Amino acid sequence: MALKPEQLPDRLARSLDAVYLLAGAEPLLVQECRDQVIQAAQAQGFLERSVHEVRRGFDWGLLSEDSAALSLFSARKILDIRLPTGKPGNEGARALGELAQAGDPDVLLLVSSGEWSAAMRKLKWTTQLAKAGVLVEIWPVKPQQLPGWIRTRMQRSGLQPDPEAVSLLAELVEGNLLAAQQEIEKLRLLDRDARVTVDDVTRSVANSSRFDAYRLIDCALRGSLGESLRVASGLQRNGVAIQLVTGALYREMSLVESVNSALAGGEDASTVFGRLRIWPARQGPIRDAGRRLGGPGCSEVFRQLSLIDRQSKGRAAGDAWQTLDRLLCYLCDPVAAAAP
Questions:
Q1: 20 CA to centre of own chain
Q2: Long-range CB contacts (within 8 A, 24+) of 200-208
Q3: CATH code of the domain containing 327
Q4: DSSP category for residue 165
Q5: Fewest CB within a 10 Å sphere: which of 99, 144, 186, 261?
Q6: pLDDT for position 191
Q7: Residue 111 β-bridge partners
Q8: What CATH code is carried by the domain that includes residue 195?
C-alpha cells in the first residue's frame, strides 16, 4: 500500500502494519514519519528498537541475527534500517525481501530510504516491502511550493506570519526543510503575540549559530579563506558545538562529491542539480568547490572531517578547531595547503 505522509497518521490510528518503507530525500519529513511509526509501535508493545545505518561494507547477515535475538525485557522489536542512498545492493535487497516476507509478528520492519524515484517503485525489494506493509512516498518540496509549506507549518504552530516574513524565511533556508522548521520553532517560543513580521524573522536568523555555520560553509565552498577563518573563530568564541559545523560541511561535501561523480559520468549539469535538488544559489559554490578539489580532494576532506569528529570526542590527539582551520585552508586552496 502506498501512502502520502499526511495519510500516515490515520493509517496508524486504524492498524499497525508489519512493514514500513519511508522513501524520500526530505530528512525532516522522513524523520517525522519514522517518529510516528515508532510511537504507534511502542504503544502496541514494540519496546525494543535496533538501528542499522547501512554504509559500504554493511554486514547484512546481522539483520537476521538481530531479528531473531529478542530481548529478555521485551518480546517485540523494531528493526530500524536506514539506507541513505536507497541502494542496498543485491545482498541487501534479498535480505530486506526475506525479512518482509518472514511475517514475524514480534518484529516490525521499518526501512528508510534517503533517495527515491518513480522507477524505484518497480524494484523487487521495494515491491516486496510495499506488498507486505506500507510504502510512504515523500517527494521533495519544490521551490515554488516552499512558501506555502512554511506558511502552513507556521499556522499549525499558532503563528500568523506576514506574507513578506514567509518569503524571507523561504529565501534564507534555500529548500532546507529542517532549517525552516527549526526557525519556526524559535519564533513560536518567543514571548510575544502570534503575528510574525520580516523584522522578527531577521532577528531570529541573526541570532542563529546554525546560520553562521551555513555561512561558514558557503564561504569555504566559494574559496573565501579569510572570511571562512573569521566566521570559524567567531563560532568557537561563542561556544558553538563543532559538530554543528562539521555536520553541515559533511552534507555539502556529499553534494559536491555527487555532482562531480555525475558530471564525470557525462550527466548534464542542469539534470544533476535538479535530481539532487540543489537550488540555483547553491549551484555556483558547489561547482567551484568541485573544480578545485576533484575526486581525491573530496576524499581528503572526508578524512579530515572524520579526524575532527574523533578529536571532538577525545578519541584522537589534537584540537578539533585547529584541524577545522587547516581543513578550511585545504578547501579554499588545495594546492597551496598541500605544498610543503
A1: 19
A2: 200/165, 201/165, 201/168, 201/169, 201/172, 202/168, 205/172, 208/183
A3: 1.20.272.10
A4: H
A5: 144
A6: 64
A7: 21, 81
A8: 1.10.8.60
Beta strands in the chain (DSSP E): 2-3, 19-24, 48-53, 77-83, 107-113, 134-138, 160-161, 195-196
22-73, pLDDT tens digit by residue? 999 888 899 999 999 999 999 999 998 999 988 888 899 888 787 776 655 5
Q: How far apart are CA 303 and CA 249, in angstroms?
A: 13
Would you state the pLDDT for residue 176? Answer: 78
pLDDT of residue 26: 87
114 and 168 housed in the same domain: no
Place of cell 559538530: 243
Q: Which three cell numbers stand for residue 67?
A: 531479528
Q: How many CB atoms lie within 10 A of CB 87?
A: 14
User: Do both 299 and 182 map to the same domain?
Assistant: no
Looking at the structure, tell me whether residues 134 and 150 fall in a common domain: no
Nine-digit cell string for 49:
528498537
- Predicted local confidence at residue 95, as pLDDT: 94
In the chain, which stretches have pLDDT less than 50?
A: none
* Residue where a domain stops, chosen among 138, 163, 190: 138
Joined together, the cell numbers standing for residue 184 give 519556526
Is the same domain home to 158 and 270? no
pTM of the model: 0.63
**Cα→Cα distances 294→245, 248, 282, 283, 299, Å:** 22, 20, 18, 16, 9
Say how far residue 57 (Cα) sits from the centre of its chain: 21
Chain-centroid distance of CA 243 in Å reads: 14
Residue 88 burial (C-beta neighbours within 10 Å; 0-12, 13-18, 19+): buried
Our measurement of the distance from residue 213's CA atom to the centroid of its chain's CA atoms, rounded to an integer in Å, reads: 16
The C-alpha cell that represents 72 in the structure block:
529478555
Beta strands in 195-318 (DSSP E): 195-196
Residue 133's domain is classified under what CATH number? 3.40.50.300
Q: Tell me, yes or no, whether 242 and 320 share the same domain.
A: yes
pLDDT of 190: 80
Q: Do 49 and 55 contact (CB within 8 A), yes or no?
A: no
User: How many domains, in total, are found in the chain?
Assistant: 3
How far apart, in whole angstroms, are the C-alpha atoms of residue 140 and residue 26? 6
